[in-house]
Each structure stands twice: as C-alpha cells, then as structure tokens.
Design a protein that fits this description.
Elements lengths: L2 E6 L4 H11 L7 E8 L2 E8 L2 H8 L8 E7 L14 E2 L5 E9 L2 H10 L9 H16 L3 H9 L4 E9 L7 E5 L13
Antiparallel strand pairs: 1-4, 2-3, 2-4, 5-6, 6-7, 7-8
The protein binds glutamic acid (GLU).
Glutamic acid binds next to strand 6 and helix 4.
Length: about 190
C-alpha cells in the first residue's frame, strides 16, 4: 500500500506534503509524484523511484503554492514508470487525482470511455476514474464533489482518492472505501 498527502491552506503546501510522503514511505512504493497550485499556475512532477528522487527534481522548480497533493505509488495497474505515476489528469486537464487502491471494473469503464472519445496516457485504473468523474461532471454540469460521489457509484474496488479542479483550487475532494484516509482541519488552515 502506498500513500497520499495533501494540503490546502495558508501555509506553503509543498514542504508539508513532501514531509507527509516521507512519513508514509514505510508503507512501500515504487514511484512518487506531486502537484502544486500557485495562483493560476499548476505544476505536476512525477517519477519512478523514491521521494528523494522527486525532491531532486523539485530542487530546480517553483515550489510555491498553497495547494499540493503528493502520492507514493505501489503499482497495481501498469508497470512502475513516470507516466503511470500519480497524480493523473483528466482529458481536459482540469481535474487532478491521486489514488490508493484498485478499481476492479476499470477495464469495462475504460472501454466505454474510449467509445465516447476519451484517450489515455497511462495504463492505470486511476486515469480511468478521473475521466469518469470528468464525464459525469460535464454531463450533469454539477459540482466536483457531487460528480465524485456519482462516479463512484459505478466503481467496484477499494480506494482512497483525493481530487481537485485546477480552475477552482479552493477545495480538495476526498473519498474512501476500504482504504484509510485521515483529514485534519485547523482554524484558518483548511
Ligand atoms: N491502482 C493504482 C495504480 O496502479 C494505485 C496503486 C496504489 O495504491 O498505489 O496506479
């Protein structure tokens, strides 16, 4: 099992999230990634290897921003490589996901999404889920939280996910079934 660490608040998100990933390293993993939002700018970095490899990449990068999601992956669908590492984006590039666990019926959902024009860069079940969420959101013209809830009614598996909308980076939607997730809420520090 791998790990998710996320932060949204008034502090600089990156150090908090990287520290969170390091604390989850004991769980075992094969790749690591992080997405940051600084104002209108989103940056996504991911790599096969260790959190220390990710930190090396990040040395040259802008690590500002008050929202970050980090992930350590233990591959279940698709080999450990950069492309299969999390976070994953939806086809529009608007939605971002990190995911622990397995979407058992991902293949059926993927085939249906392909028929409806969706394309995939990775071999993961996770990229299927974020595009299903996107499709539900567009079809119903609804809020992200509702789209996540509705999309998950079509999913069989165990998961902990964190999702956000790049155009509305003032909330992180989380959901879980079978896999654990912990949320902390601090005053002035959501
Ligand atoms: N099933 C997902 C994948 O293979 C997530 C695996 C995990 O829990 O790290 O990318």
């Amino acid at each position: 099992m791998c790990g998710i660490a996320g932060y949204l608040g008034f502090r600089k998100a990156y150090p908090i999230v990287i520290n969170g990933l390091q604390r989850l390293e004991y769980r075992g993993y094969d790749s690591a990634g992080v997405v940051l939002v600084d104002g209108n700018e989103m940056s996504l970095y991911k790599t096969k290897g260790k959190v220390s490899d990710l930190k090396k990449i990040m040395k040259q990068k802008n690590i500002e921003g008050n929202l970050a999601l980090g992930h350590t992956r233990w591959a279940t669908h698709g080999v450990p490589n950069d492309e299969n590492s999390h976070p994953h984006l939806s086809n529009s590039g608007n939605l971002v996901i990190v995911h622990n666990g397995i979407i058992e019926n991902y293949d059926t959902i993927k085939k249906e999404l392909i028929i409806r024009g969706y394309t995939f860069k990775s071999d993961t079940d996770t990229e299927v889920l974020i595009n299903l969420i996107e499709e539900v959101k567009i079809k119903n013209n609804c809020k992200l939280g509702y789209a996540v809830q509705m999309a998950l009614t079509n999913v069989v598996g165990a998961y902990a996910i964190a999702v956000f909308d790049v155009s509305k980076p003032d909330e992180i939607i989380v959901a879980k079934l079978g896999s654990p997730i912990a949320i902390g809420i601090g005053e002035n520090n959501t």
